[in-house]
């Protein structure tokens, strides 16, 4: 399968996915990395691995042309089957979501629907988790729909929170767990092991 990864930051999830591909755990290849930031960890990693980078939004492209160009690059140029959001910090236009129905995943650093939605991203999520006093947080992989953080959940992983943990402690524990969870879900997606039940819920089937 052909993948596009969207990332704005360090790109550690992107790296985990690329490593899983290189190890033969995911049957796919990353055709293109899309980033709003030139020179972030994700774009540097992509360049080092011979993966083309696309800037979106690109400040040098007129606003009304940018999305059309992105869709064309993903579709015609790269033949992308699945879009993986991995710490992409910009707005995803509804047209893009509609172009990849049941074909776009995101990873969120908490147990949705808790600690999700607008205003819940980055370290902010972990600060809210610590402030709330919950004893467990985690990571959620979900399909992307037009409502922010509301797409169908595919898989979650739990991470314990100790009352002594700082938001930074929680962030690093969650991130480590993300690096196992996201590649596992992407592997299942690429193998056709995610089944949509009649009630509209996606589940990972263990039997092929
Ligand atoms: C992760 O915590 C992910 O859950 C969130 O953004 C962060 C990206 O980290 N959506 P990285 O760039 O993959 O290191």
TrEMBL record:
Q: Does the keyword Iron apply?
A: no
Which of the seven top EC classes does this enzyme belong to?
transferase
The answer to keyword Transferase applying to this record is yes
- This enzyme's EC code(s): 2.1.2.2
Q: Name one GO cellular component term.
A: chloroplast
Annotated Formyl transferase N-terminal domain residues: 1-186
Give the catalytic activity. Answer: N(1)-(5-phospho-beta-D-ribosyl)glycinamide + (6R)-10-formyltetrahydrofolate = N(2)-formyl-N(1)-(5-phospho-beta-D-ribosyl)glycinamide + (6S)-5,6,7,8-tetrahydrofolate + H(+)
MF terms per GO, please?
Answer: phosphoribosylglycinamide formyltransferase activity
Q: In which pathway does it act?
A: Purine metabolism; IMP biosynthesis via de novo pathway; N(2)-formyl-N(1)-(5-phospho-D-ribosyl)glycinamide from N(1)-(5-phospho-D-ribosyl)glycinamide (10-formyl THF route): step 1/1
Biological process according to GO: 'de novo' IMP biosynthetic process
Tell me which UniProt keywords the record has, alphabetically: Purine biosynthesis, Transferase
Family classification? Belongs to the GART family.
Q: What is this protein called?
A: phosphoribosylglycinamide formyltransferase 1
Species the sequence originates in: Chloropicon primus
Boundaries of the shown chain within the full protein:
47 to 254 of 254
